[in-house]
Amino acid sequence: MIMQNISELEEKSAYIIRETKEKFENVAALWSGGKDSTAMIMIARRAFLGKVPFPVIHIDNGIDFPETYKFRDDLAKKWNLNLIVAKSRIKPELSGFSCCGSNKTDALKEVMKEHGFDALIVSIRRDEHGIRAKERYFSPRDTEFKWNYKDQPAELWNNYSSKMDTKGHVRVHPILDWNEIDIWQYTLKMKVPVNPLYYSSNGYRYRSLGCTHCTVPVKSNARSVKQIMDELKVTETEERAGREQDKEKAYVMEKLRALGYM
Amino acid sequence: MDIKRVTLLGNKDHGKSTLIGSLLIATKSATKQRIDEAKKVSMKLGRDFEPGFILDSFEEEREGGLTIDTTRAQITYRDAAFEFIDVPGHEELIGNMISGASYGDFAVLMVSAKGGEGVTEQTRRHLVLAKLLGIRRVVVAVNKMDMVAYKKERFEAIVESVQEFCMNVGFEPGSVVFVPVSAYNADNLVKRSMHIRWYRGKPLMELIYEAASARKKGNRGLRLLFQGTIKSGRKTLYTGKIVNGRLRRGQRILVMPLGKNAVVSSLYVKGKEIGSASEGNNVALEMPGTHATRGCIGFEPESNPRCGTVFEAMVFSVGRIPKKVQLRMNGSEFMADVSVFGEIDLKSGKIKEANSIKPLGTGKAKIRLSRSVVIESAAECPEMGRFLLYDSGKFAGIGVIG
Ligand SMILES: Nc1nc2c(ncn2[C@@H]2O[C@H](COP(=O)(O)OP(=O)(O)O)[C@@H](O)[C@H]2O)c(=O)[nH]1
Description:
By secondary structure, chain A is α/β, with parallel strands linked by helices. Chain A has eight helices and eight strands; from the N terminus they run H-E-H-E-H-E-H-E-E-E-H-E-E-H-H-H. The longest helix of chain B is centred in the middle third of the chain and has 18 residues, at about 150-170.
């Protein structure tokens, strides 16, 4: 896995986050308590001189790990975040694709509508999954949250989609260019707090966090960010290998994204 | 490690995806899981192994055999990392292609040597666009050499045709280099191939490595693009990005097109107050007494920037560019009148007189804006001298000043 220059990556991300605040009226960010969205919030804090200038939304399906709830509440307090918890209803008869699709996406739709957000910052990365390679930094979604990946606006020379280009909202992806290992480099350097689920316990750790139903841990002895990075440098498996929904079919992610899943 | 961006151009089916797939394998940059998955999909579709499938992630893309949007793949070679940007060679999707290509500093062009393929109109269009997008160096991979029995004559015919076109389009002599390859068999990709003994040059990755190491030239003066404002406690600070030069706390700057001098009284980068910032930094700053707005540009006071409403530009047209358009440049939007006076002839690469630009064509135009801007040629400062055109909100083209 390639390590990039995190100082340059942070500059690009900071530009995109500031651009979002500049061009939209009502911005929010998704925050799962995972490493990516937590790093993104750190970047935003620095870009805005200490205070994150938009609310962060946690989509809570009620079956996240206890560690995640504690991590969320502690950090929200420490960083003085405006936290919005959007409760989703678990449908026990569903699992995998349809579970994530219906639970999380419905809850997100509701909270977006309630608050009238016109831009939503989502901390996805291109190296996570093939289809994410197709994403833009600013990606318009229609009122049904659908992503029309074949007809995306041109994005070049620091000119991005603005509100005028869509009747729905715009998804913003400030850390699209980061690799998994870059997030860890940054976490280490900036001392970003880490959800303890990422550290090994009894020979296993979580590499990517979903909810308790469909995330499985990977074999690992890493007990620090440094050790996580050492393991990643030689790994042969993909980051999301532990996620149930990704295994079902090669193009499940495509369907989820088109439905508005993050 | 810095990642060097490589834009991959070329006619559809000339082997771009295959090249990236083979490079991922040859440089051990793809995980076993991804390679296995690509093998499975090839089998499922009843084909021989297609290395390109490591890359193409959409199901429908594999079935249709067409790359829909830009795709990225990261490859490590020697002490460097390269990000390959695969752009669709499909004409209706050229808007997407421009988005991809604009991230590259130099380009790799695939030209298939297979009978009936060769240098096509799309190949030449990509070269014209590459020039417009500011790409200075091109490595041409003459591909599918295995299908023409690795014949030297076929390679040389393609070299000659591409070289002549490139000269006419305005590439510097020596900035376009050639290598015969087979993306499928990995000939001359990372190692010199035994199949092509008559070729004495370097393998593709080495040429790419050299093209990527060439130093960019440019002027060193301050260019600070103002982005907007942020609040910190009771203070309001200006935000901006330094695209060229350095900025110090206490420095006097000239804010254009306001024409005002101002002193930067405090300066922040990444949340910290600092004494000086440089190219690439997103800054926040205080500047008492001056109201800089989005689209303003900061210079050194002794510099003498040109401002005005009229300039000449090279323009690429996605569809048709009407006489009245919206123009976006440096974060601001303007109304603009466009009058075309020349178009590049795709057969020769030379400019001929014309008063309109055909769809997917490139031409020269005089542009008149609704209000005054800083006018700087893209050759001098690429970040500033380029713009996007919209027709009633729909993307219509791109252009560069100069
Ligand atoms: N024999 C041979 N076939 C090739 C070579 N490179 C690509 N191809 C085939 O040409 C077809 C188109 O290649 P692809 O990589 O999809 O082209 P793209 O549209 O430019 O991405 C595929 O069936 C490839 O297997 C090569 O070097 N030799």
